[in-house]
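Supplementary Text 2. Reproducibility record for the structural model of the 252-residue chain.

All settings were left at their defaults, and a single model was retained for analysis rather than an ensemble. We include the record here because the model underlies the residue-level annotations in Supplementary Table 4.
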Amino acid sequence: MGTMGRSGRASDADGQCGLVCAPTVEAAVELLTDDGFAPDAIIVAQAYPGQFSHAAIDRLRRLAPLARVLGLMGSWCEGEMRSGQPWPGAVRVYWHQWPARCGQELGRLAQGECPAWGLPVTASEEERLLAEAVVSWPPRHGLIAICARSFDVAEMLATACRSCGYATVWLRPSRPGRVTGVAAAVFDGSDLCDPESDDLRRLAASIRPAPVVALLDFPRVEDRDRALASGATAVLSKPLQLGDLRASIALD
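Retained model, structure tokens:
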């Protein structure tokens, strides 16, 4: 569990953004009762449904009513929205989404901008997606290789990359070949069972040392590890938020 903000003990040396960790709810309560501590966000890392009760989250929210509650959710929590009792008013981010997404959101917070996480607690997931969609990105340059079996998927990924200013080329997974001048690649996969991991390995070898972003279906930790061992430098989950993809291939 952590709290993040721009004041009090959560601040870094630049007065922009910092993190304070608490191992238990009680420790977090002690932090939040400090008069000089006012976090912008409370990050609750939950490995399985029910690890932190609604009462515990409400207790933290009452002590910091202006802070957003961010749930950093483990794989066991992926079905909680359908069959469990998710925390009301909390922003849910799964562990495989966190590396790409938190950098974007916390970067906006540190710059004094309102991140999508900063919308009112009554905002829906659709409204947060719309807020992220209108964020302006600086123009980028370079050639992105799209490795996908389906033309429709390849075209969708290419359109996302071109919207940032990149040029794109479509490669077939089974025979990626050697394309010169590739700055990064996006690999469309599923669970990386054979022969998919071999396809990823060939792609990474063909464009090395350029980075490869692997897109997988609801990855587990072992899927992430398999992708990294096969040459990927980052792993993203499908369904995909375009902002996560843009952040993962930001080259300049």
